[in-house]
Amino acid sequence: MPAKNWSYFHAGAWKDIYLHEVPHPLLGKVRGKVFLKEPLALTGMEVSFGALPPGAAVPFLHAHRENEELYIFVKGRGEVLVDGETIAVSEGSAVRVAPAGARSWRNTGAEDLVYLVVQARAGTMARGTIEDGVEVKGKPAWRG
Ligand code: ZN
Predict the structure, then answer these.
(1) Beta carbons of 121 and 67 less than 8 angstroms apart
(2) How much distance in Å is there from the Cα of 98 to the middle of ligand 1?
């Protein structure tokens, strides 16, 4: 039997993201963070959902060995700090940080700051989405 070509995971509504927690080497546990690599068996990227409540800030800087990160903000207002520079972010903002960038972020608004983080090895993207796509014969066969 051929391997299934998809995987699925549902983390729940954004408002319930604090029900999730992950172990963290510096903080013990972090609430409001969900990593998708394991539940989805991702092979070329790590993706996480994250949130910070009003007034909260990540209390440390971090960088990466090989992976660049893309922070995509879907709700709220905040700031990203990279190598001492501050970038204001809100719904619709995207910030790419190179592996060596020393980064942190905080919520500066009155509601949750909700974001996605995509992490992939820097310098490995040979083709973008359109160039990498290939046509598949046939029409979508929706049932029902
Ligand atoms: Zn990171």
Answers:
(1) yes
(2) 10
Sorted by where each begins, the domain ranges of the chain are 33-124
Which superfamily does 33-124 belong to? Answer: Jelly Rolls (2.60.120.10)
User: Ligand 1: distance of its center to the CA of 131 in Å?
Assistant: 28
pLDDT digits (tens, 9 = 90+) for 104-117: 999 999 999 999 99
CB atoms within 10 A of CB 138: 6
pLDDT digits (tens, 9 = 90+) for 59-108: 999 999 999 999 999 999 999 999 999 999 999 999 999 999 999 999 99
62 alpha carbon – ligand 1 mean position (Å) = 6
End-to-end C-alpha distance for the chain, whole angstroms: 26
103: CA distance to ligand 1 center in Å?
Answer: 8
